[in-house]
Amino acid sequence: QKEVEQDPGPLSVPEGAIVSLNCTYSNSAFQYFMWYRQYSRKGPELLMYTYSSGNKEDGRFTAQVDKSSKYISLFIRDSQPSDSATYLCATSRVGGDMRFGAGTRLTVKP
Amino acid sequence: DTEVTQTPKHLVMGMTNKKSLKCEQHMGHRAMYWYKQKAKKPPELMFVYSYEKLSINESVPSRFSPECPNSSLLNLHLHALQPEDSALYLCASRLAGNTDTQYFGPGTRLTVL
């Protein structure tokens, strides 16, 4: 079993839709949860970062962590074509190295 | 400033060449990483440097040789690579301690002929 599971998609939505991206993880020691956005042929860009359970909102993006079910989510409201990218979830323990999900390829169609 | 820079952006090399990839950050981060990323796959960890000392080598072949000359610079020396080593090579850095967020550079796209 992979430490972080993420549906690779691809996921295609119309402009303006609410996008829900999800990951599950297996190690209860993970404390840090990140979402990275990666455009084609570019390095990953840190989008959201949360510590332990809860919600975090930044503009159109909301990250949720439910440690009881080991489930992490990223919601994108009013999606735009510029949001088309691969979204990678990642987790880590304190002082540990990151574990990435497979990445979900998202296309937002005008 | 959360910038990690990498040079070159693109590199094409033959299997007998020796080349180096460079990474630089001026955020005071004391942990630096090399990742390899193949198309449509997540980044795979290669090496971790913590306080300029190699702390993790994820069983990477010896044709890849990392070097950390100081706290701001990280190199990856390449020698006798194989075509299957063609990939995007990413550098990342992290502020050592409890903040585990890593910041990535734009990567070097390597093609081995």
List keywords for this structure.
heterodimer; A: 110 residues; mainly beta; 6-stranded mixed sheet; 5-stranded antiparallel sheet; 11 strands; 0% helix; B: 113 residues; 58% strand; globular
Describe what you observe in this structure.
The complex is a heterodimer of chains A (110) and B (113). Chain A has 110 residues and is mostly beta strands. Chain A is built from no helices and eleven strands. In chain A, the strands form two sheets. In chain A, strands 2, 4, 5, 9, 10 and 11 form a six-stranded mixed sheet that branches. A five-stranded antiparallel sheet of chain A has the order 1-3-8-7-6, with no helix packed on it. The radius of gyration of chain A is 13 Å and the shape is globular. With 113 residues, chain B is an all-beta fold. Chain B contains no helices and eleven strands. In chain B, a hairpin with a 6-residue loop joins strand 4 and strand 5. Chain B is globular and about 40 Å long. Classes of the chains: A mainly beta (110), B mainly beta (113). The A-B interface holds A 8, 31-32, 34, 36, 41-46, 49, 88, 92, 94-98, 100-103, 105 and B 2, 4, 6, 33, 40-43, 45, 48, 56, 88, 90, 98, 100-107, 109.
What general form of chain A does the structure show?
globular
Which range best describes the helical content of chain A: under 10%, 10-25%, 25-40%, 40-55%, 55-70% or over 70%?
Answer: under 10%
Overall pLDDT of chain B = 91
Overall 3D shape of chain B: globular
Largest interface: A-B, 24 and 23 residues
How big is the Rg of chain B? 13 Å
Number of helices of chain B: 0
Q: What is the H/E order of chain A?
A: EEEEEEEEEEE
Major β-sheet profile of chain A: 6 strands, mixed
Mean pLDDT of chain A: 92
Spans of chain B of 5+ residues with little confidence (pLDDT < 50)?
A: none
Strand content of chain B is over 45%
Describe the oligomeric state of these chains in a short phrase: heterodimer
Strand content of chain A: over 45%
Helix run count of chain A: 0
